[in-house]
Amino acid sequence: MNIKEASEKTGVSSAAIRYYEKESLIPPIDRTAVGNRDIDDRIIRRITFVTQMRAAGMSIENLRRYIELFDAQEDNTKEQKALLQEQLGVMEEKHGDLQAAIDHLNYKLNHFYDHMESTEQELRELERQHADKVTQKPTEDGDGLTNY
Amino acid sequence: MNIKEASEKTGVSSAAIRYYEKESLIPPIDRTAVGNRDIDDRIIRRITFVTQMRAAGMSIENLRRYIELFDAQEDNTKEQKALLQEQLGVMEEKHGDLQAAIDHLNYKLNHFYDHMESTEQELRELERQHADKVTQKPTEDGDGLTNY
DNA sequence: TTAAACCTTCATGTGTACTTCAAGGCAAGG
DNA sequence: CCTTGCCTTGAAGTACACATGAAGGTTTAA
């Protein structure tokens, strides 16, 4: 498929796909007779992988290092492990921050709700939607942003 | 406390604190007689809140809108709700992506481990550390990055 | 055969979120 | 008195991750 189809399939812009190839986040892409990129499913999967890792907050630079290590044929087991471990740490931390912020907002939303008329059900739905994910509420609402 | 102490306490640079104040992410900070910022715990909490939301992926712009709404005295209940709802959506999505990426890396790490000598215990520890957080593994390891 | 709709490379522009620099003020220690 | 070390504002610079534009090539459809 051409780059536009790949773009539509992945949700990544054509320019970004070219950029990823140049930065070696995805392998060199085969070209057609006239020099156009011919993108197969392997490349699509790689693009999707990049998208996931980017969404998870991994920088282009780290992602490139990570991929280089995995693509290399030498025995760089140790470095691979170290890099995985490092990235897992970063992601767990982000995950924690994110969860804290979500909990915080949910708490605020619930508190907020307590002081409102109960005619509007949207908030209840929202609350129900997220209820299973809220594990703990902040011990105090200390950011000074609660007017209610 | 002065801005340097606040910086050390929050892990946010002095320049960033000034920037946050200018962008109204934190309230106007009191000044001493000679014009230096005198930062109290309320400001510290605000800075921490900003840090958390930033870490969770909220943009400066959205964060400012959010804070403006909460600081305003008018009855903007509806907008506050909408903004909270919007941000919760964004964060839940990010959370999902992040979890997917973490699961992916954990799966890779486990798979990886299966093919290694069991003399090195670090990976077991890492595995143990994160085991409770891994809820599901990717159905296939389709990014082409598994050499092992 | 001419326009539309793709594509290419290379260069430059853009938005975000700060960081760094320049120029200067205040307070304490030697 | 002068250096050190903190602070101030305002302007300009930087890094990242692309987006956009220029100049041109190919293929398809009218």
TrEMBL record, chains A, B:
Residue stretches of biased makeup (Basic and acidic residues):
120-140
Keyword DNA-binding tagged: yes
Q: Which UniProt keywords apply?
A: DNA-binding
Q: Where is this region: Disordered?
A: 120-148
**Ranges of residues in domain HTH merR-type:** 1-69
Signal sequence span is none
Tell me the PANTHER family matching this sequence: HTH-TYPE TRANSCRIPTIONAL REGULATOR ADHR, REDOX-CYCLING DRUG-SENSING TRANSCRIPTIONAL ACTIVATOR SOXR
Q: What is this protein called?
A: MerR family transcriptional regulator
